[in-house]
Amino acid sequence: MTGGRFDSSYHAPVLVDEVLAALESAHRVIDCTLGGGGHSLALLEAGKRVVGIDRDPQAIVAATARLAMYAADGRFRAAEGTYADLVTDAAALGAEPFDGALLDLGISSHQIDDETRGFSFREGAPLDMRMGGAVGRTELATAADVLNESDERELIHVFKTYGDEPKASRLAHEVARRRANRPFVTSDDFVGAIRAVLGARSGPGDFARLFQALRIVVNDELDGLARALPALRDRLAPGGVLAVIAYHSGEDRIVKHAFREWSMSCVCPPKHLQCICRGRPLGAPLTKKAVTATAEETARNPRARSAHLRAWRKAAAED
């Protein structure tokens, strides 16, 4: 067990042992969510070559400094940008296929702890939540923009789909009512709206869930994941492994459905009498169900409690 050996002041990576087991056979790995470099460090210590991607320039600086020794011997390099956009960029990542890929979705401990980034619901935090200089394909720049500029139907979708909120309609209406008098600027503004709808018993769990919903929209996380998964699959060499750690039910659902569809030999509509699709599975899942953290790890790192790891192996040879 690695324990907290790969933790840093920037971030504590989750499921490190499980990731190493899933990518055991890989030699050249793309770490699509570099963060503080914890997973990359574990992979490098296991003898692998790693290319790390992150949209957060602060993460690139921290991880590059931490992994400088491996960069010096040519086994590590980093690229700044969103994995959804960079994974097909041969200029940034090279044309050579990878035989391992890792996605650790969500945000780093550093991003949460840095109040200027606006990822937390701490009192007075700005409603920002941008992971980097770019915000994907969304036209909205910050979480404040989502709350102040989205119409009620869009807010209902955000709170219901990404926040699993049963009172999404009431919350959207409350946001619209409040912003008519004063725009949303800080975390206090949104917390006040949540409490007005969910009542005095609402607490950190509710705030975390609904703030996360805003973050997903600001950073185009679910759409970006859906675009990136097939691109990552195609960048894998035959026999390569894709491992994904998800923290949100929407993320995990996208990954589960993608791995399931890729593992089917036929994806033709039911009414087709004869197969006209690819006619073969593209690979097979390595995990029958999501792998979760041990009680020991969750006690050390509570963030690991919601982590779900799934892994899939590409077919060994193309037909």
Explained architecture:
This protein is of the alpha/beta class. The protein is built from 15 helices and seven strands. The protein has helices at 16-22, 38-45, 57-66, 68-72, 83-86, 90-93, 109-113, 143-149, 152-162, 168-179, 187-198, 204-218, 221-235, 249-262, 295-300; strands at residues 28-31, 49-54, 76-80, 98-104, 236-246, 283-285, 308-314. The longest helix has 15 residues, at 204-218. α9 packs across α10 (168-179) and α10 (168-179) crosses α11. Residues 133-139 have low confidence and may be disordered. It has a seven-stranded mixed β-sheet with strand order 3-2-1-4-5-7-6, sandwiched between helices. It folds into two domains: 16-110 and 221-314, Rossmann fold (3-Layer(aba) Sandwich); 139-218, Putative methyltransferase TM0872, insert domain (DNA polymerase, domain 1), CATH 1.10.150.
Domain unit count = 2
**What Rg, in angstroms, do the CA atoms define?**
20 Å
Terminal Cα span: 39 Å
What would CATH call the architecture of the largest domain?
3-Layer(aba) Sandwich
Order of helices and strands: HEHEHHEHHEHHHHHHHEHEHE
Q: How many strand units?
A: 7
CATH C-level of the largest domain: Alpha Beta
**Spans of at least 5 consecutive residues with low confidence:** 133-139
Question: Fraction of residues in helices?
Answer: 40-55%
Give the CA-based shape. globular
Number of helices: 15
Largest β-sheet summary: 7 strands, mixed
Please name the fourth-level CATH homologous superfamily of the largest domain. Vaccinia Virus protein VP39
* Beta content: 5-15%
- Fill in the CATH topology of the largest domain: Rossmann fold
Provide the spatial order of strands within the biggest beta sheet.
3-2-1-4-5-7-6
Averaged pLDDT: 87
Computed structural class: alpha/beta
